[in-house]
Specification:
By secondary structure, the chain is mainly α. It has one domain (3-55). The chain has two helices and no strands. The chain is elongated and about 60 Å long. The N and C termini lie far apart (53 Å).
Length: 68
């Protein structure tokens, strides 16, 4: 029974660390995009955003539904 609080604390700590890592990754992604957009024309920026959205949709599709 002594280990239960340690396990709960460990789970909470992991959740906090995961959230912090996710926030850091998102900040780095935003910084990268900002720097990239400094070099792209407005038209290229639009095409880039469209490509990213298309890739997100492809990643969301269930795996295994491709025709054989």
């Amino acid at each position: 029974m002594e280990n239960v609080p340690k396990k709960i604390l460990s789970c909470k700590l992991c959740a906090i660390l995961n959230k912090a890592q996710k926030e850091k990754r998102m900040a780095l992604k935003k910084e990268k995009e900002t720097k990239l957009f400094e070099f792209l024309t407005p038209d290229q920026q639009t095409k880039y955003r469209e490509l990213i959205e298309q890739k997100k949709k492809e990643m969301e599709k269930p795996v295994g539904n491709s025709p054989s």
